[in-house]
Amino acid sequence: MSIQSISHPKLRLEVLSAEDVRRIHTATLDLIETVGVKMPSARAQEIVASHGGKVDVASGIVRIPGAVVEQALAKAPHGYTLAGRDPALDLPMDGQHCHLGTDGCGVEVIDPATGSRHRSTLADVRDAARVADSLDAIAFHWTPISAQDRPPESRSLHELLAIWSVSHKHVQTESIVTDREARVAVEMAAALAGGREALRRRPILSIMQCTLPPLAQDGGSLDAGLVAAEAGLPVGYMTMTSCASTGPATLAGTLTVGNAEVVSALALMQMAFPGAPVFYAAAQTAMDLRSGAYTGGGPEDFLFGAATNVLADFYNVPLSMGAFATGAKEPGWQSAVENALSSFMAVSTWSDMLLGAGMLHGSRILSYEMMLLDAEIWSILCAMSRGITVDDETLALEAIREVGPGGNFLAHRHTKKHMRELWRPTYFDRRPFSEWETKRDGAVSWANAKAREILATHNPERLAPAEREELGRMIAAVERS
Amino acid sequence: MEDLFDAMRNSIVEGEPEEAERLAREALTRGVDPMEAMSRGFLPGVNQVGEGFGCGDLFLPDLVRAGAAMKAAVRVLEPEMTRRGTAREVSGRVVLGTIKGDIHEIGKTLVGTLLTANGFEVYDLGVDVAPELFIQKAQEVGADLIGVSALLTTTMAGQRLVVEAADKAGLRPKVGVMVGGAPVTKEWAAEIGADGFSEDAAGAVALAKRLMDRA
């Protein structure tokens, strides 16, 4: 088992200048200080008040001086590791790697055997984790679909257990949104990691929370984030601000509103637990002007995908960026355009984590075919990120001299030595036309066959019976109370 | 007078609530029948925006702004209409809210605005609303429809409780229950026995009209 992440990418794209970033930062601090951010959590409000922020108890809005925000953010660690349960699967958050994860949190799954949609269950969470576990492209798990056959108060914990049952890869959740669930999740992770201190050293779980744009947080998400930060689990806050609805119609305005949400939440974590590992998370978009819907794909999303890591770099924290997760209803032209461009843009500024593999219809429907096709897009990005190396060996002057005018390189030893560095497709159709004409199959049908094969054969058992029992008891305790 | 009606129509099309309010007051000062101000001034504006949206020239923000302008005009004209005993025709009464445990507001508010702009009387209970509150309010105002929004897969289950509570209170089938929100699907709506579901705000208005016709 290995992970194919992008390491030291050579691509570079300038989407925001240093002056642009400075203006967005200044505007962000201005918003947090003068307009404020709604933080409906007693614990959060106390922390803000004790650090010199103003709390309006009636509205739940806190206003924090810019200098206080900056001082708090300065305490965030610049790098750390998202641990796998197997150290070979560790993911460095050092600004030099891009890692791909699945996505969440959908409500339906397309069954690869029948092609029909059904409401997602715990069994689907386990299946999705098995497929993600089998793919080198997938570096870490999210809970891609909701275990809707489990009670709401313990659902996120069942999902965690299902993923850990089949995979040693790092898990990041977005569905642990109360103080209570977070405490049990920490307890479960500690049990697997070998205690609280071991978990702090090697966090096998990271916690992501969504903000509530514009300029608000969910109280439970703040409480859950604080519990995780206290335990040393990396905590991120994701803005999903949408141009023209939850953010201004202009991209700079929407970036700024989202930035204020994320920055205020990360600053809160640092005020409470200085030095706690935190990350920036984002999946901004533009509202569909006709329906008002969250679109999940389009030029604005792609620009946000590149711009957000520039902001995260400015704050010197890792970024978990929404990419892939096409708005298309099935794998095809739209999904290919959206997922290729969104992931490319996020990689071009070296976003640490990319989310979204395997989802359709704006993260609502899980498709195994899509997950495999997304993994292929990822492999293209990996190849592109290696860039072009120019040295004596790659200039290949000696080989060129030997072949000379009119010859070819097919049989040259230099070719044999380097040909495997060239990208090879799994789902691109490079066959002769006549073969396609006879068979009329292609990427989606091949991905379907592969998905069915993985589901039939990749059935790892990654928990000892005692571990499974212990974690099960912790979940049961939540359900009894 | 035609100038005044033109200006009224325009205030809706441009979506300027302050202008609409000012024109409504001016109409009352000049002794214009408020029903006439509606039918010859403001409503043609609403129709124009509806048509513009229908053919793709206008967008959702145009509808929302027009809705806000219409609301401002109605607020001024309504007391005078009541005084004259010529209350405007209401398309239907709708109780709206986001379900308990969920504080996501925008989708529900958008539906409320568009319903209001389309002549519905909307009672918006806000967010984090317990199922029984939907029922109480519906009984209190004699609602025709109840709209329940949920954004989270964990809170979505509450929509079923509203349907059940409506049944228990004997409100259905007279009162229709509509559900919506990102995770809500047509299959979910059918399973919980809701009377309808829409994936977007414009669709919710069409659904509300359909449910009213059904009655």
Task: Describe this structure as you would to a colleague.
- The complex is a heterodimer of chains A (481) and B (215).
- Chain A has helices at 18-35, 42-50, 66-73, 122-134, 155-166, 179-193, 196-201, 219-230, 251-272, 299-314, 333-348, 368-385, 392-395, 397-403, 413-418, 433-439, 443-457, 465-480; strands at residues 6-7, 37-38, 54-56, 61-63, 80-82, 91-93, 97-101, 108-110, 117-119, 138-141, 170-173, 205-210, 235-239, 242-243, 278-282, 285-286, 319-322, 353-355, 359-360, 365-367.
- Chain A has 481 residues and is α/β, with parallel strands linked by helices.
- An eight-stranded parallel barrel of chain A has the order 7-10-11-12-13-15-17-18, surrounded by six helices.
- In chain A, α11 links the parallel β17 (319-322) and β18 (353-355).
- Chain B is an alpha/beta fold and 215 residues long.
- Helix content of chain B is 59%, strand content 11%.
- The interface between A and B is medium-sized, with 26 and 24 residues.
Short description:
The complex is a heterodimer of chains A (481) and B (215). Chain A is α/β, with parallel strands linked by helices and 481 residues long.
Biggest sheet strand line-up of chain A? 7-10-11-12-13-15-17-18
Mean pLDDT rating of chain A:
96
Strand-residue proportion of chain B: 5-15%
Gap between N and C termini of chain B: 39 Å
Helices and strands of chain A: which structural class?
A: alpha/beta
Q: How would a crystallographer describe the biggest sheet of chain A?
A: 8 strands, parallel, barrel
Q: Widest sheet of chain B: strand order? A: 2-1-3-4-5
Please, what is the average pLDDT of chain B?
92
**Which bin fits the share of residues in helices of chain B?**
55-70%
- Give a short account of the largest sheet of chain B: 5 strands, parallel
| Number of helical elements of chain A | 18
Q: Let me know the number of strands of chain B.
A: 5
Instruction: Estimate the helix proportion of chain A, in percent.
Output: 40-55%
How far apart are the termini of chain A?
39 Å
Q: Which structural class is indicated by helix and strand composition of chain B?
A: alpha/beta
Spans of chain A with pLDDT under 50 lasting ≥5 residues? Answer: none
- Structural shape of chain A: globular
H/E series of chain B:
HHHHEHEHEHEHEH
